Amino acid sequence: MFGLVRFLGGSEPLAWTLQWMMSGTVVVALVMAWRSRLPYALKAAALATATLLVTPYLFLYDEMVLAIPVALLVRIGLADGFSEYELPALGCVALLLMSFPWVGAPVRPRRSVDRCHADRAARWRATNDDDEQYCFAIAR
Questions:
Q1: 105: which residues sit within 8 A by CB, 6+ positions away?
Q2: Residue 139 maps to a domain
Q3: Which end of the chain is more exposed for a tag (fewer CB within 10 A), N or C?
């Protein structure tokens, strides 16, 4: 967020404020995911994606971390079947990553990967009959 705001001409205080807001949101979402009964592969994919979201600057070589959530999502998709948009979304991620050297502007495929995480989590919740899956109690 910080790098994108600065790239678009925003001030440094604005960039830091938005970066901290996004980082806090990511941390809360990650804690909720890990406290839930989501499959471990989805939790691990969310953690790998979150590491990129909380850093102020990302370079092309940092994007290699996305191989972890992509591999985990593909593994889940091969086992449970893919949604109709998941394979095209992963293709768009690959195209955006490959286009960066020629575009020279920030192209962020993380939103597509994040959307795949959210959809997988929602589908898992919908098929799980356990009533406690929506409870994110801090203490048991």
A1: 7
A2: no
A3: C
pLDDT digits (tens, 9 = 90+) for 60-84: 777 788 888 888 888 888 888 888 8
Q: pTM for this one?
A: 0.63
Q: Which residues, including other chains, have CB under 8 Å from residue 23's CB and lie 6 or more apart? A: 53, 54
**C-beta separation of 43 from 121 below 8 A:** no
- What is the distance between the alpha carbons of residues 135 and 58, in angstroms, rounded to a whole number? 34
Q: Which residues contact 3 (CB under 8 A, 6 or more apart)?
A: 15, 56, 57, 58, 106
Q: What is the number of structural domains in the chain?
A: 1
Residue 136 has pLDDT above 50, yes or no: no
Compute the 3-state secondary structure of the chain and give helix, strand, coil in percent, each to the nearest 5. Answer: 75, 0, 25
Helices (runs of H) and strands (runs of E) counted in the chain = 6, 0
Domain presence at residue 36: yes
